[in-house]
Amino acid sequence: MLLLAGALRAGAVPGVSRAVAVFTLAVALSAPPAWCVLQRRPPRSNLSANCWSHLHPVNMPNSYNVKFYHSKALTSPYPGSHVERSQVPADKVGWLTEWKDYNPVEYTAKSVLAGPSWADPQINDKGFSPKFNERDGEVERRSLNGIYVVENGRPRNPVGRTGLTGRGLLGRWGPNHAADPVVTRWKRDGSGNKVAHPVTGKNILQFVAIKRRDCGEWAIPGGMVDPGEKISATLKREFEEEALNSLQKSPEEKAELEKQLHKLFSQEHFVVYRGYVDDPRNTDNAWMETEAVNYHDETGETLDNLPLEAGDDAGMVKWVDISEKLKLYASHSYFIKLVTEKRGAHWSEDPGLGCHE
Fold first, then answer.
1. Termini Cα distance of the chain
2. Domains by residue range for the chain, with CATH
3. Measuring CA to CA, which residue among 341, 4, 356, 351 is closest to residue 184?
4. Mean local confidence (pLDDT), 314-329
5. Distance (Å, rounded) from C-alpha 22 to C-alpha 27?
6. How many CA atoms lie within 13 A of 340 on its CB side?
7. Is the whole-model pTM more than 0.85?
8. Confidence at residue 94, expressed as pLDDT on a 0 to 100 scale
9. What would the pLDDT profile of 94-131 be if each residue is shown by its tens digit?
10. Ramachandran angles phi, psi of 33, nearest 5°
11. Residues 259-285: pLDDT tens digits?
12. Which PROSITE patterns does this chain map to (predicted)?
C-alpha cells in the first residue's frame, strides 16, 4: 500500500486525488571531501553547487519546482562499514523513473539494532506502530519537506533512491532531525578593526568549527534533536556540548557559560536553512533533515570571551575564516555560504561563481 508523499496532505482536499511532489535532491557543495574513509563518488550533476544561492532556503518546503540531487547519499562504502551500496545511475535516482531491476542492499548498523533509546525498533517488531507523517508522541516523524510516501510499511526517501535500504546508522525510520548553530563574528586585526579580503574588499566572517571525532571532517557544531526537545534548545545545547565542553564543566562554570551565551542565543537570529540534507548516512528509508540557524556577534564582545574547548563528539574546535575554499561535512559549506550572502561578507574571489537564472 502506498501512502502519499507530496504537495497535498492526506485528506486536505476531499474528492481530489493526492498529488506527489517530487523532491529530486541535490546538495552539491564545492567538491566536498569524502567521508572519513575512502569512498567512490558517483558522477555529479552538472548543476553547480554555487547555484544554490538563488534559492530561498526557508521557503524550500513549499517550492515544489526546486530540484535536488543525491551526491553524498550515494557514496560507498557506507560510513563506518564495508557495505557497498547498489549503484544508482543519475537518471534512476528519482522514484518517478521506473526501474524494475532496482535491487538495493539492506543494511542497519548493529549499534542501531541494539535498541538504544534514540533508535526505533525494526518495522515488523511486535508492538511497534509508528505514526509516519505525524508527531508520534515525543518523536517528530513529520518531514520539513512535506508529506513523504510510506511503502510496504517503510518511509520512502523523498529525494530518491540511494542504493541502500534499512536505516544504516540512523535511529529513526523516515526523517532524523538535527539542528546546526552557525555562530559567527567578524575577523578583526590587532586594533579591533574588521579585516577585509584584499581582492573582493568584503569583510571576512569567522565561524566556530569543530572537527568531528567520527570521520575527521570539519563541521558546524550541531547534533540530533532529542524527543520532545525544541529546536532552539537543541541549537544552544549542541553548541555548549561540542564547542565549549559543557558536559565536563563544574556547576559554577556552567552557570558562567550560560550567562555569556544567553545574550548571544536570545538576540535576533535568522534561519539559514530548513529541510533535507544530502548526507552519507541516508538510505531509502531513513534520512537526515536539519534546521541551521545563524547567531551573529556583531561587535565580538560576547564571543571573544568564550573559552572554546572541544567536547562530546568534537575532537577539535576553533574559529575558521569563511571562504569558498572551506571543505566541510555534509551540506555545511552550503549553509555557511548562505550566511555570507546574508551578511554581505566575503565568499569567493571569482565573481562568476554566482548562479545565473
1. 40
2. 72-343 (3.90.79.10)
3. 341
4. 85
5. 15
6. 27
7. no
8. 95
9. 999 999 999 999 999 999 999 999 999 999 999 999 99
10. -70, 165
11. 878 888 888 899 999 999 999 999 999
12. NUDIX
Residue 165's closest CA among 49, 246, 63, 73? 73
The rounded radius of gyration (Å) of the Cα atoms in the chain is 21
Average pLDDT across the chain, whole number: 80
- Beta-carbon neighbour count of residue 215 at 10 Å? 16
Q: What per-residue confidence (pLDDT) applies to 314?
A: 65
Residue, of 166 and 260, whose pLDDT is higher: 166
Q: Are 305 and 259 in contact (CB under 8 A)?
A: no
Whole-angstrom distance, CA of residue 7 vs CA of residue 147? 7
Task: Kindly report the backbone phi and psi dihedral angles of residue 54, in degrees, each rounded to the nearest multiple of 5, phi listed first.
Answer: -85, 0
Within 13 Å, how many C-alpha atoms sit on residue 50's CB side? Answer: 14
Considering only 45-54, 191-200, 238-247, 286-295, which range has the smallest mean pLDDT? 45-54
Average pLDDT of the residues in 125-148 = 96
Short-list 69, 65, 225, 61, CA closest to 147: 61
Is residue 172's pLDDT more than 60? yes
Q: Which residue has the cell 507523517?
A: 133
Chain position carrying cell 555534509: 330
The single residue listed with the C-alpha cell 564495508 is 82
- Whole-number Cα distances in Å, 216 to 35, 239, 351: 8, 18, 31
**What pLDDT is attached to residue 160?**
96
